[in-house]
Specification:
By secondary structure, this protein is mainly alpha-helical. Helices cover 59% and strands 6% of the residues. It has a domain of 224 residues: Phosphatidylinositol 3-kinase, Chain A, CATH 1.10.555.10. A hairpin with a 2-residue loop joins β3 and β4. α7 crosses α9. The longest helix is centred in the last third of the chain and has 21 residues. This is Rho-GAP domain-containing protein. InterPro entries: Abr/Bcr, Rho_GTPase_activation_prot, RhoGAP_dom. GO terms for molecular function: GTPase activator activity.
Length: 326
């Protein structure tokens, strides 16, 4: 019997964990008196069929207005071929799930402004970003669904604690940790920044720039916006961009295209400030704002992922050129 708790409704990651457990001990059905070596036999398609039922039920409940309005956990059980899945689900609105809460302890890295971290570390890119990228490229770039499949929450929290306390065990822990947990830690770091990496101030301009129809005007606008980022933000964004491009080069193996990666990271790196949301809500509904903005956020990151290599030095040279051009 397998019990799986689905608290964040991450369907893909739960599906993969379920598949690993969808097997039965063949010895239970072996009537021979001879000692047998334990053999595990998977029911044909049991995992896929069972997960299809779970997914269908979860999605139906997610669309149910009563479920959406309720703040309580909803419990349910689905069973097939001796495999039992127990799950609980609670609806959390997107604006609450992505709300950024600054850390009260400025000694850590999660929830701390990126310029504070880089200044303290005397580095151009936060240590956590460099180490997670390095580990993913070392042993996770061929992993199917890297960055899409979530790691185990307890592993991610353990890594978060280690990075926040700056212990000497980070490198050992990273080398032993599941690669999806490391990828999840990197996403969590960006998600918990007090301000998105591409900044609240520039968010409206990014939305306007990506909507431009003239290619030359869009190019000028999007590059100008990168030059307008604070140096710690830009110097963190560019290596992340190069890393994601290298991940996408392995798409035939890891199944992660540029668009998939933009979908994962876009809303994390770029999202409206609370004041922008409040302002827009006077015009249209919150759900319309989110659906429109998420598509635009994905398109912004996809634009940079599809762009030829961008160097910090070249951007800064162009900044000097524009500032002295009369």
């Amino acid at each position: 019997m397998t019990e799986i708790l689905v608290s964040d409704v991450n369907l893909n990651s739960v599906c993969e964990r379920l598949e690993k457990h969808c097997c039965v001990d063949q010895n239970q059905h072996n009537l021979s008196s001879q000692p047998q070596t334990p053999v595990l036999k998977r029911h044909s398609n049991t995992g896929a069929k069972l997960w299809g039922r779970v997914r269908s039920k979860l999605l139906r409940q997610k669309l149910d207005p009563q479920t959406v309005q309720s703040k309580n956990w909803h419990m349910d059980v689905i069973e097939m071929n001796g495999i039992k899945v127990e799950f609980s689900m609670k609806f959390t609105s997107r604006d609450l799930s992505l709300k950024r809460t600054p850390s009260k302890k400025q000694s850590g890295v999660f929830g701390v402004k990126i310029n504070v971290v880089t200044k303290r570390e005397r580095s151009k890119v936060p240590y956590i970003v460099r180490q997670c990228i390095e580990e993913v490229e070392k042993r996770g770039i061929d992993e199917v669904g890297i960055y899409r499949i979530s790691g185990v929450a307890t592993d991610i929290q353990a890594l978060k604690l280690v990075f926040d306390t700056n212990t000497k065990d980070i490198l050992v822990m990273l080398s032993d940790m599941d690669i999806n947990a490391i990828a999840g830690t990197l996403k969590l770091y960006f998600r918990e920044l007090p301000e998105p990496l591409l900044t609240d101030r520039l968010y409206p301009a990014f939305m306007e720039g990506i909507a431009l129809s003239d290619p030359a005007a869009k190019e000028n606008c999007m590059m100008h916006l990168l030059r307008s980022l604070p140096d710690p933000n830009l110097m963190t964004f560019l290596p992340l961009l190069d890393h994601l491009k290298r991940v996408a080069e392995k798409e035939p193996v890891n199944k992660m295209s540029l668009h998939n990666l933009a979908t994962v990271f876009g809303p994390t790196l770029l999202r409206p400030s609370e004041s922008e949301i409040a302002k827009a809500q006077h015009i249209t509904s919150a759900s319309d704002i989110w659906s429109h903005d998420v598509m635009a956020q994905v398109q912004v990151l996809l634009y940079y992922l599809q762009h030829p290599p961008i160097s910090f030095a070249e951007l800064k040279r162009n900044t000097l050129y524009y500032s002295t051009d009369v």
